[in-house]
């Protein structure tokens, strides 16, 4: 493993690449909606995403009890106290930050926080909905800083792009669920694949992949935002290739590193649109 790979591995274990991906995705939608996001809003988003993901991993690491089967959960077991303190510090910083964000963002952020709370309660009883719930909450989170303050009326093209992005987020989580299925069974961690089985999961992954490109096709017809649609479609394509060549990407958890990195692809749109 090279020095870069080793560093990126720790970045991934700490969910920092997910945080960067969320911030990039938020900037992507802000550019699409022609909204300027305040830096404090991006900081609040990044901290919130990191705290939620870290808290989820810490909860799993704690409930497993024994030494976890996955590297991610073992990492959170070994550094449990340090990460718990860091997560609590993140919450405290966010409490201060909310006094500086826009009122609309704060109000809808509170609504989203309630949604996260409802998910945590419902997830105990409807465990097979874990992936779709997280995908919806993630999409709402990255949309929050821009969609709550935009002065533009959302068009059919906007809604199609949002649906397309949410499908990509769902596909990402289903593919991760597939790769983690054996470890999840050993650790008794519920997921879509452990609850509904491999045939249903495999079919769902390919149906989601097809849906992403069907929505992209409709978007090309309904909107002038073709470059944005193409970027999100490319994200779906990369995920589909990961699953198509799953034996190769299963080695060294490559699927997770590349799968999370797809949310950095909107950077290309940001660079392209800034040069117009």
TrEMBL record:
Transmembrane segments: 7-30, 36-58, 79-99, 105-122, 159-179, 200-221, 227-245, 257-274
Keyword annotations: Membrane, Transmembrane, Transmembrane helix
Listed name of the protein: Prenyltransferase
Upper classification of the organism: Bacteria, Pseudomonadati, Bacteroidota, Cytophagia, Cytophagales
